[in-house]
Give the backbone structure.
Amino acid sequence: MRASPIQPTIDFDAPGEQHGFLKLPYSHDASAWGAVMIPITVIKRGDGPTALVTGGNHGDEYEGPIALSKLASTLKASDVTGRVIIVPFMNYPAFRAGSRTSPIDQGNLNRSFPGRPDGTVTEKIADYVQRYLLPLADYVLDIHAGGKTLDFVPFAAIHVLADAQQQARADAAMRAFGAPYSMRMLELDSVGLFDTAAEAAGKVFVTTELGGGGSASAASVGVAERGLRGFLVNAGICASAGNGHNGARTTTLLDMPDGDCYTTSEHDGLLEMCKDLGQSVEAGELLARIHDATRTGARPREYRARRSGLLAARHFPGLVQVGDTIAVVADVVERGIAAGCASA
C-alpha cells in the first residue's frame, strides 16, 4: 500500500514535550497548495507504555477536545514514564465546522476505518491513524459525547471481546476512567469504527459518551479530565492521578445485551420524553410520545420500553424523524462499584 500523504511535524520518538501538526495536503479554491493541519502533542520520557488519547472523532462533541487541550498544555515529560500521544480534534475539518461529519467530503471518521491513503480527506485521516498511530499505542482512549442529536448519562464503555485477557484489561481501564456509569456497549453496526480497528489490533481500548446536545458542561468536562488521569494511571504511564483526581469514586455498571435496548422512531414529529436520563424504566412503560406537528387534534404516537433498565440515552432535539434513535435502555448490572486507578 502507498505511503500516507500525511506528514507529522513532530518526532514520535524524541523525548520531551512536542506540539505540532499532522499535515495533510488539501488543494481547494481558497488555497491551491493548502493543507489540513491537525494539532497533535507528543509527551515522552524513558521507556514505558504508549497511550493514544483522542477527541473530535465527531466534530460536534466537545468534552474530548476541551479535556485533551488542557492535558496537552499541562502534562509534562517529568509526569510520565512512556509516551502520551494527544490528538484533541481528530476529524479537524468537522471540528472546525461544529458538525458530526466533515464539511469537505461529508465523511464520518468513525465509520471510515481502515481508511485509504488515496481516498477522501476523511479516509486519509483514518488511514493515518490506523497505519501510523495505532501501531505506536498500547492503550487507546477515544472520548465521545452525544453531539447535537443525542444526550447520554456520562459513561465510559468497552465492547465484549473474543480475547478474554484483552477484555479484562479493557474492563480495568474502563473502571479506572471512573465515569459515573460504565457500559458494556452493543454497536448495531461496528463496521468502520475506530473502536473496531483498535480492538482488532489488540489494543486496550476505552471509549465514552459524556453528555450531549452539541455543548459541554462543567460536570461533563470534569468527568473527562478525571477519567483521562485515571486512564493514564491504569496504563502505568502516570504515577498518580494528581490534582485531586485520585479520590475514591464509584461507578454503576451497565450492559446493552441486545437490540431491544434501542427504541427507534417510526414517525416524524414533536418529541415528548416521558422519562429523564438516569431514571429507571420498566418493560412496557411509556418512554416518549411523538406529536403530529402538521395538524392539531391528532393523538400522539406512544413509544414504550421493550425492556426494563435505566434510560442511558435519548434523542436531544425537540423534533424527531423516522429512523432516529429516541431512547436507549440499558440493564443495570451492579451499582456502586469501586472505580479504581490501579496500574495494569
